[in-house]
Amino acid sequence: MDFKGFDRPGGPGGGGTRSVKVMIAGGFGTGKTTMVRSVSDIKPLTTEETLTEASADVDRLIGVADKTETTVSLDFGKISLNDTLMLYLFGTPGQERFWFLWNGLFKGALGAVVLVDTRRLASSFRAIEEMERQNVPFVVALNVFPDSKEYPLEEVRDALDISPHTPIVACDARDRASSRDVLVALIRHLKERSAVPLESR
Amino acid sequence: MSAPRRPTNPSGLERYYVLTKGRSGPGGSASSLDVATLIVSRTAPAPGFQHEHEEILRRCRDPLSAAELGAHLGLPFNILAVLLTDLLEAGHVEARDPIPAHGAGSGPDLALLEEVLSGLQRL
């Protein structure tokens, strides 16, 4: 094996590369993975967290082949914003009841996109509640499916009980430019939030 | 193309137990490890390195997120975090956490947001 590349630790390879992350949340089947896929520079990957009942007790891990084991997955992608800045996009697990496993998942995130399927508004209630509870800034993106009815954005705002400060945009999660625009709306929102003094929202 | 995962045992628990020498979760420096934390090798693998440690050092010559590393190695995040703790504690790798929108105790990082925005607009 050749490890000659190592004569430059901290050199151009390591450099000053930095990362930021944005979470893509929303109910089951609202298009989270689709959005990650459409906008990512790399083929989306999956990282897994395995939960076993014995996970808190190391000794009991031995000989527990029949142990109930739950794997939750996070699909993620990456966008090179420039030579030294990477944006990672993580789709949250569809089943919100597993979110506790990803405690800290939203920590350090710039913010989140909550995808909503207007045919099934209720499926994204939990995601919106969770953003508010964890105080994560977010935008709501209505993923327009081919058979979606046109909903005036303000009607959706009322139905979802979203604060007037939270932007709502329509998008097609399958489309790269459209998904990119949702991310742009999120970053603009973050900038606007920071322009006004922090108030209780 | 990915390495065979869980080759002998569908649950994979034994494999993970061996890999981590029985440690179930990260302690110390890796407990704060984020899925978007960038890992960068600081040294070349030395003879006698555990295979997975060697593999991590090889793949992280250029910064790679912990999530990508886990996906490439076919390891759940908590198992990877244990392996990374070893390497971090021995100074073989460096970890860089994702930059939050707000610095600790300071206001929002407007320069960062601007940089993200212009990167997105170039897509």
What's a concise summary of this model?
The complex is a heterodimer of chains A (201) and B (123). Chain A is α/β, with parallel strands linked by helices and 201 residues long. Chain A is 22% helix and 27% strand.
Main features:
heterodimer, A: about 200 residues, alpha/beta, Rossmann fold, 7-stranded mixed β-sheet, 4 helices, 7 strands, about 20% helix, about 25% strand, globular, disordered N terminus, B: about 120 residues, mainly alpha, Arc Repressor Mutant, subunit A, 3-stranded antiparallel β-sheet, 5 helices, 3 strands
- Named at the architecture level, the CATH assignment of chain B is Orthogonal Bundle
> Considering the protein shown, what is the CATH homologous superfamily of chain A?
P-loop containing nucleotide triphosphate hydrolases
Global shape of chain A = globular
Alpha-beta classification of chain B: mainly alpha
CATH top level class name of chain B: Mainly Alpha
In quaternary terms, these chains amount to heterodimer
Mean pLDDT of chain A: 81
Indicate how many domains the architecture of chain B comprises: 1
* Poorly predicted runs of 5 or more residues of chain A: 1-13, 53-67
Unreliable residue stretches of chain B: 6-10
Structure overview:
The complex is a heterodimer of chains A (201) and B (123). Chain A is 22% helix and 27% strand. Chain A has helices at 32-39, 125-133, 153-160, 176-195; strands spanning 18-26, 45-52, 69-82, 85-91, 111-116, 138-143, 168-171. Chain A has a 7-stranded mixed beta sheet with strand order 2-3-4-1-5-6-7, with helices on both faces. The termini of chain A are far apart. Chain B has one domain (13-121): Arc Repressor Mutant, subunit A (Orthogonal Bundle). Chain B has helices at residues 13-19, 51-59, 66-73, 77-89, 110-121, and strands spanning 38-41, 64-65, 93-96. Chain B has a 3-stranded antiparallel beta sheet. The model of chain B is unreliable at 6-10 (pLDDT under 50). Chains A and B meet through strand 1, strand 2, strand 3, strand 4 and helix 4 of A and helix 1, strand 1, helix 3, helix 4 and helix 5 of B.
